[in-house]
Amino acid sequence: MQDFLFYLNLGWEHIISLDALDHQLFVLALIAVYSYIDWKKILILVTAFTIGHSVTLALSILDVFRVPSAWVEFLIPLTIVLTSLDNILMKNKKQILMRANYYLALIFGLIHGMGFANTARVMIAKSQGITIPLLGFNIGLELGQIVIVLAILILLFILLKIFKVNKKDWILFVSSGVFALALKMTLERIPF
């Protein structure tokens, strides 16, 4: 149980800490087109991300493949750039965008999972099974994402209901801001 709680906390910190800006921006861009009434769809969406994340993490820990960390650090903000750009370009096609987001979450979750793989590979000893660490880490990650999503949805509710912000303006504002931050991160991390 102690191992499980250790990895649960590690997963939580992986998404909640101040060093996790890339994951937080990705979640923000991913759910920007949704409303607080879409909470079930959003939970499925972040779970799709967690599934992709955990598949790659497991394959990396098992040493099925390795991707140079410089490329991973470049690809992670690139996924955020693409997600936010998709929001901007598809802002008038919300239903298509919402369906596409499930695939983006799963596929980009695969890339984000590589970001923690090198650290996890070192932490999980060969003699230790990967089931408890992966389960704990991914539950912690999922709980952290849910907290971030709740914070965003509360902010969105306040903006839309109290301050009467236009939903399309919200999507454009958030997606443009996330795009700018992620593009800066991407350009700073070009591996070639």
Could you characterize what this model shows?
The protein has 192 residues and is mostly helical. The chain is built from 7 helices and no strands. α2 runs antiparallel to α7 (167-188) and α4 (69-89) runs antiparallel to α5. The longest helix is centred in the C-terminal third of the chain and has 32 residues, at 131-162. It starts with a helix and ends with a helix. The relative contact order is 0.22.
Instruction: Write the element-wise H/E pattern from the N-terminal end onward.
Output: HHHHHHH
Tally of DSSP β-strands: 0
Low-pLDDT runs: none
Largest sheet at a glance? none
- The span between the termini is 43 Å
pLDDT average, as an integer?
92
| Broad shape | globular
- Rg, Å, rounded: 17 Å
Structure class:
mainly alpha
Range of helix content? over 70%
Number of helices: 7
Topology, please?
Layout: H1 2-16, H2 21-31, H3 39-61, H4 69-89, H5 94-123, H6 131-162, H7 167-188
A few lines on this structure:
The protein is mainly α and 192 residues long. The chain has 7 helices and no strands.
Any key phrases for this structure?
about 190 residues; globular
